[in-house]
Every structure is written in C-alpha cells, then in structure tokens.
UniProtKB/TrEMBL annotation:
The lineage of its organism: Eukaryota, Sar, Stramenopiles, Bigyra, Opalozoa. This is NB-ARC domain-containing protein. One of its GO terms (molecular function) is ADP binding. Residues 128-271 form the NB-ARC domain. One of its GO terms (biological process) is defense response to other organism. Residues 67-92, 324-375 are annotated as: Disordered.
Length: 596
C-alpha cells in the first residue's frame, strides 16, 4: 500500500520535470525566434538604407553628368550649367509651299487673336482675352503649315516683343510621351537654369502652369528670386484628345491675361473642352481685328482651298523650275504650258520625253481640267495634302495622271482623293514595265509605316530597314520625296524622311494594321539589322553607347535615332527579352543620361 501511495508522487514529479524541460526548450525557441525577428528588422532597415543611399548617389551622379562647366561669359570656372535642351522650333516650309496659299486670312486672324491684350509688347490686365486659340480642320488641310507660319510671324517672336520668352513648337501626335514633352518644354523655359525634375504627368502639368501663369521665378543656382517668368507662345501641333491638352496646359487654360498664350492644331474642336467654357468659332470671312471677348477658347477653321490657290500648288509642285521665276511670270508660263497639252500618240510629250520619266515638267492635262467646276483640283477637294500628291504624280507620269483624272471625275459622290492618288502612285511605282528602282521605292515606303509618327528618319536607318547601302537608300529616299510621298528633312546633318500622319495611317492599313505580324516582323528586322551591322550581333546597347570599338563607326544620326526609339521598336517587335536586357544595360543608361 505504501508503494502504491508513492507512485502518483513519482509520476507527478517526473511530469513536472518534463514540463520544466519543455518550458526551457520553448523559452530557447522563443529566444531564437525573437533573435530572428530582430535580424529581419535589421536586414530590412539595412536594405532600405542601401536603397535610399543608392537613390541619393544616383540622383547626385545624374546631376553631375547633366551639368557641365561653363567657363565663358564671365562665369567663374566650374560653374555648372545644364545641357542645352532640344530646340522646339517650327518645321521648315514644305517644298510646295506658296506664300499665297489660300490661308493668308486665317494666318493673319490667328496672329491678331494671339496678340489681343498685348499692347506695345506688354500684356494688359483684366481685358478677358482668350489665352487659347485653335486651328481646326480635317487631316491634310494644312494645319501644321499654317501654325508654323504663325509661329514664324515677326510680331510674335522675341524680336517683336509680344512673347519675350520665345515660341515653343511642340508636336503631340497620336502616341506622345507626355512626360518627355513636358520635360523638353520645361527645359526650354528654364534655360539656362536646370529644369525641375518631374515624377509624373500631373507634376509636370503643375510645373508648366506655374511658368505660364508667370509666377515668381526662383533661380536654382543662387536661390534668389528674379521676378515673373517671361511670356511664351506655345504651339501644340496635332492634339488628338482633351487629356493631352490638359496635361500640357492644365485643367483650365484661362490664366491671367499677363500669362502665356497657347495655339493648338486639332482635327476637331471638342479636344478643347479642358474646362467648362465652350469654344467659339471665329468667322474669318467677316473677321475684323476686334476679336470676341471672353475666356473661351477661340477656333479658326481651315476650309478647302479655292480653285486658284489649289491650282498654284499643283502647278508649282509639278514644275520645280518655275520656283525661281516671279509669281506672275510663273503663272503665265504654266498656263501656256498647259494649253499645249500632251501628245496623245504613244503617250509621249511634244518634246519626246518618256511617259515615265521622273522629274518630267512637261504638261500633263489641259488647263480646263484644273480650273473647270468639275475639274480635277476641285475633285481633290482643295486639300493641300491631296494637291501635293497630285502635283507629284503629275511630274511622274502623264498616263497615271490621266487615270487619276478619270477615277475622280467619274465619281458621283465624295471620294477619298488621297487614297485614289496613292493607289495610282503605287501602281506606277510597282508597274512591271518600270524600273526596279521604282518597285524598291514602293516597298521601302510600305516598310516606313513602322517608324514613329512625326519623326524624321535618317537615311542610315532607312538603309538598315531596306537592306541596302546608304547611297542606294539616299536614291530611293529622293525618289519618294520627288513623288511627294515623304517629306525631306535633315537629322544630324544627314538626309532624312518623314511621313505625313495621314500617309502613315494608310501605309499601316496596307500592312494589315499596327499589330499585324508583318509590321511586327519589320520592327524585328530593323533591330536585327542594326545589331548585325553595328554591334557584331552583340547587345544592342552598343548602338547608343558613346564609345564604340567596332571597326565600322556608327553614324551619329543613326545613333541619335536609336537612342530615342530603340526601346519603342523592341516593344513593337515583341522582343521582350532584348528590351529587358537593354534597359538594364549600363551603356544604355549612360547614353540616356548624357544625351550626346
């Protein structure tokens, strides 16, 4: 009985010992767990500190790279100044431009509307002048050319005194990088000071509104205040929707009448609805310099050109030799040449030139086809783009000119003249009886649909896409320019081509759409050709690095183009792995920072 009584005490004692052992083990586990928690917190803090330190070092290095020593102009040695911003200037006049182009009244009207409230170079207060004027019209009607003429007007520039800050001409387009546009605008407005860094579109909008409202300017280099900003004239070309306009001028463009002015070109007036004010149309036919008062945006519509103005574009474009003559002599000689008419026998002109010779300035049709109510010019609808193409075709081939004339004259209702002319131009270039150079030019034009909107593409880049040398690419580019299918310009001192957005849209349709397999493959072909030619098949960051150890030097215009658009081409070509490698490349980051 005694042993039985002792048993429970023994068991309880052993259980207590086991519990004590478990408790000690648990305490150890808790201690380990607590230590791990502390280590985790320390690691996280260390990681955050390293990230913050890296960001600070990166921002510091970025600023050091973007600044350069300025030892001239009385500045002390080593004084940092920002890299010169990209010039936001109006585009050059097109080759077919005529001063008396039928839009003179609209140009003068827009200039006077922008000058409302500016007296002797100083803006007046409280007069209720509109701060936003828009040029509205269908695609190809000459909005960009008209806006460029306004921007070049002597009364609006720095010399005229109305806008001492200058004129900023910005192309927006269908797929803009709004933050890049904001940065370029701010860089020009702040020059020679460093522009503020912006982290979002909304932040960029706030910065732009501060400048356009002429708020007190604070100099970053000295920390002092200089007074109000100068007035700017800001031209926003080809605005497609209200959100784009809102990002670049703010939610309400009705600033103080001491502020800057904005000129917008758009296809429709509805893009101006960035505030509660309804845009008002200005009747230029009965317009006087007494512009309507109020803060609402003012709209100047571009209508089709009259027959005489349209005829001048076609004749001048078809006969480049006439540009050196006076306008009266040119018109008289053009009328005489058209009266002679072509020789119907054999499709040859009177002087025996071939029907297919490019640059043939001989007559194409009689004067009645250009001036009669049912004539060809009127069928084109007075659209400068269509008239430009019409003049190019008139120079190229009388046979296809006659076919276009028949196509347009037989139409009983409205017809898309640009599409008709382009289809005949394509048939002419692709005609089997023609030269191989013509066929190559048409295929090259189709491939140009992959290039970004409103961008000049150097011939060194076109040569990569077309698979030819630069000399052959230059000849094909000259042929396309002579057809007026592309606009000739310059990029870094090299010949370059740019497509009108309407022509580009039609070429994209010819290729099956922007997301088609063909378009995707063209993007891939371009980047692969660039890597093969200039990178020896290695990483594409070599294209834009400042120093290349390749045997074949990369042309500066080609490097500059790919510095801006390589990511865009990789994304459109669905080359995701290459795109990821590129954005992580040190050479790529360095080139983007240096912007050389």
């Amino acid at each position: 009985s005694d042993s039985v009584a002792v048993l429970p005490h023994t068991v309880i004692s052993k259980l207590d010992g086991a519990l004590d052992s478990l408790r000690a083990t648990n305490d150890q586990h808790l201690a380990v767990f607590s230590e791990l928690q502390k280590m985790k917190v320390q690691l996280m803090r260390s990681f955050d500190a390293r990230v913050d330190n890296f960001e600070r070092r990166f921002e510091k290095r970025l600023r050091q790279v973007e600044l350069k020593a300025n030892d001239s102009g009385g500045a002390s040695p080593g004084t940092p100044t920002p890299v010169s911003p990209p010039a936001l200037t109006a585009p050059h006049r097109p080759a077919f431009f005529e001063k008396d182009n039928g839009h003179e009244r609209q140009i003068e009207c827009v200039v006077q509307l922008l000058l409302q409230g500016v007296v002797d170079g100083a803006a007046t207060r409280g007069r209720g002048e509109s701060q936003l004027v828009a040029i509205v019209g269908r695609p190809g009607r000459g909005k960009t050319v008209t806006a460029a003429e306004v921007a070049r007007h002597t009364e609006l520039g720095v010399a005229g005194g109305a806008f001492p800050g200058g004129v900023l001409f910005v192309t927006v387009g269908q797929e803009p990088s709004l933050m890049s546009i904001q940065h370029d605008m701010l860089a020009n407005m702040h020059w020679p000071e460093m522009p503020p860094s912006i982290g979002s579109v909304d932040e960029g909008t706030d910065r732009l509104v501060d400048v356009m409202q002429q708020r007190v300017r604070r100099l970053q280099s000295t920390g002092t205040r200089e007074g109000p900003w100068p007035r700017f004239l800001i031209v926003l070309d080809d605005v497609r929707n209200a959100s784009q306009l809102r990002a670049l001028v703010g939610p309400s463009p009705c600033w103080s009448s001491l502020g800057s002015r904005v000129l917008v070109t758009a296809r429709e007036a509805r893009v101006l609805r960035v505030c509660d004010l309804v845009p008002r149309v200005v009747d230029t036919s009965s317009w006087t310099k007494a512009a309507p008062r109020g803060d609402a945006p003012l709209v100047v519509e571009l209508f089709e050109l009259g027959v005489e103005a349209a005829r001048r574009i076609v004749v001048a474009d078809a006969e480049p030799s006439a540009r050196s003559r006076t306008r009266a002599a040119r018109a008289g000689e053009a009328a005489r040449e058209e009266t002679d008419g072509p020789d119907e026998a054999g499709g040859r002109s009177v002087d025996g030139d071939s029907d297919r010779s490019v640059g043939d300035s001989g007559p194409a049709v009689g004067a009645e086809a250009l001036s009669s109510p049912s004539g060809l010019v009127e069928r084109v609808g007075g659209e400068p783009l269509g008239l430009n193409l019409l003049g190019g075709l008139r120079r190229l081939s009388r046979q296809y000119w006659k076919q276009v004339s028949a196509d347009l004259s037989d139409a009983l209702e409205f017809i898309d003249a640009v599409s008709v002319i382009m289809s005949r131009m394509a048939a002419f270039l692709a005609d089997e009886s023609g030269s191989a150079e013509h066929a190559d030019a048409w295929q090259g034009l189709l491939q140009m649909a992959i290039f970004p909107e409103d961008s000049f593409v150097p011939v060194s880049v076109l040569a990569l896409l077309w698979g030819v040398n630069v000399g052959d690419a230059r000849r094909q580019a000259s042929l396309l320019q002579s057809c007026r299918l592309a606009e000739e310009g310059a990029a870094g001192g090299e010949m370059a081509l740019r497509l009108h957005d309407e022509i580009r849209d039609r070429l994209i349709d010819y290729n099956g759409g922007s997301a088609s397999e063909r378009v995707c493959q063209l993007h891939v072909s371009l980047t692969e050709a660039a890597a093969r030619t200039y990178c020896d098949g290695q990483e594409l960051s070599r294209l834009i690095s400042e120093v290349s150890d390749q045997a074949v030097a990369i042309p500066a215009p080609c490097r500059a183009y790919f510095r801006t658009w390589l990511c865009w081409h990789l994304d459109r070509g669905q080359q995701h792995a290459e795109l990821e490698d590129l954005v992580l490349s040190v050479a790529w980051i360095r080139s983007r920072v240096l912007r050389g």
